[in-house]
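Batch 3, record 17
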Amino acid sequence: MEQTVTQRSFLDSLSIKLRNNVPATIVIGLSIVLALVIAVKTGPAQLANVIVTGGMWALLAAGLALVFGVMNIPHFAHGESFMVGTYVGYFVFTPLNNYLKDNPNGLLAFLAPMIGVVAAMLVGAILGAVLERLIFAPLRKRTRVGWVMNTFLLTVGLSFVLINGTTLVLGPNFRGIPRYYNVPPLEFLGMRIAVDRIFAFVIAIISIAVLTWFMQRTRTGRAIRAVAQDETGAQLVGINLGFIHTLTFSLATAMAAMAGAALLFMFQAYPTVGLKPLYFAWYVVMLVGLGNVYGAIVGGFIVALLQTATQQFIGIAWEDVVPTVVMILILILIPSGIFGSEVKGIQEQ
Amino acid sequence: MLELKKVNTSYDFLQILWDVSLQVAEGEFVALIGPNGAGKTTTLRTITGLLTPQSGEVLFRDQSIGHLAVHTVSRMGISYISEGLNLFTNMSVRENLLLGAYALNDKQKELETLDFVYHLFPRLKEREKQLAGTMSGGERKMLAIARGMMSNPQLLLVDEPSLGLAPHLTNDVFRALLELRNRGVTILLVEQNVNATLEITDRAYILEHGRIAMEGPSREMKANQHVRNAYLGI
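Prediction for the assembled complex:
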């Protein structure tokens, strides 16, 4: 008996999970139908669009979920990490690109966008660690009650400071690049996909895979999950809370900055560029349940699908309206999100 | 090995411990008993660093640990199995155990200790892949003790392991503690099940209203008139 229970195949356990979770089944089922409708009506090129944006929302939302799950911070300055990423991408890629105009070099042309993304990731990681040490760690020592509310206000304030500080230093101008890869779009199964989109998608997939591996398979990743599930238990087994908090915030900021740099060809760099990605990342975490990192990855693709369907069938002006309406419905009908929340600390505080 | 010298501890303005002094020698199995609200859990929380004493000293191997962070104390070799267990409920049994060995940071030792606790609690090996939150109360308690063992602690603090357990499971837990002690682990046990506790421990302290009321060898305690009246109901 025991044998049959433990040796369930992956598909079996997945189907049991779905059967036990009706809202998730409905939402995922509807998403698949929607994806098929889009593929038939407008051609598979739009699906490629869904996958690229979805990957990016997933990256952003996973960071948001991580910060909320581990540190109980509703992070409303997460968009500014994205903004910093777009600027780093711009300021690293543009000189490289200018140099390439005079000295054509195939290998460097291939690597230049990646250098921009990696630079954004490093700057994001450092920025995240510094912000956590400088702002959240001292606040944590002093807070007794109302941590979630305090950090909410703090992150909103931080967002204002970062946006206006950037405007002060760099001005309100849009800084963009025409494209990352100056090559014709790839033909694939009758669709034409810009190489930049493939680049962004590959970045998203690699980062999500690395994140999942890190969280599931490494000792430190396990420690991060432990802190999210039981802070006291984590301390009792010898985990340094302060270190895990700094690492988590740094990781989330780095992912957002990476997304910013990878999407520079779509968004351009300007002080308020992070607001829209922030809202979409919040739609995602509310849809799947606050603090649920793996749910956020799936949710990223669902929200992108919704967005693309709205653009295609209702009109581009409605792009923000439909996800907002869905979010309101989710909050009324299933407030804990379709995959449920894993946040434990919130009740203790 | 462990020594508390006139320790006073409060929650905000409410003082719980008043000049508590106690000692646990290497290899000893010591009980801390007393009625509800006497401050037994508070004593353990003060030792682990979850609470900071207002005055007095907590010494572990002659080193003051009263003001150290919880994770530092844990890494010095003190393992605390709390009443609430503080398990990672959404992780498998195996992951919980591996996290118990977090401070070791040594793959080889980690697997050795894992074998040892699986030998001690064969039930946990059967349930290796199950989520900790889906196990029964007795199994969860076993897991908490096993997780506490994973760091190869020198001193084990156990808080009310029999609470909420069926009598035969309580016996299992006590047998496991005895086995650990026979392997040289020093244990400080907090319990409400006074009869069974005095049966298996070497020495006992009685804590009443935040003060140490009595101390002595467990055998003598069992014969003491006050203990018989108040705790054994004889």
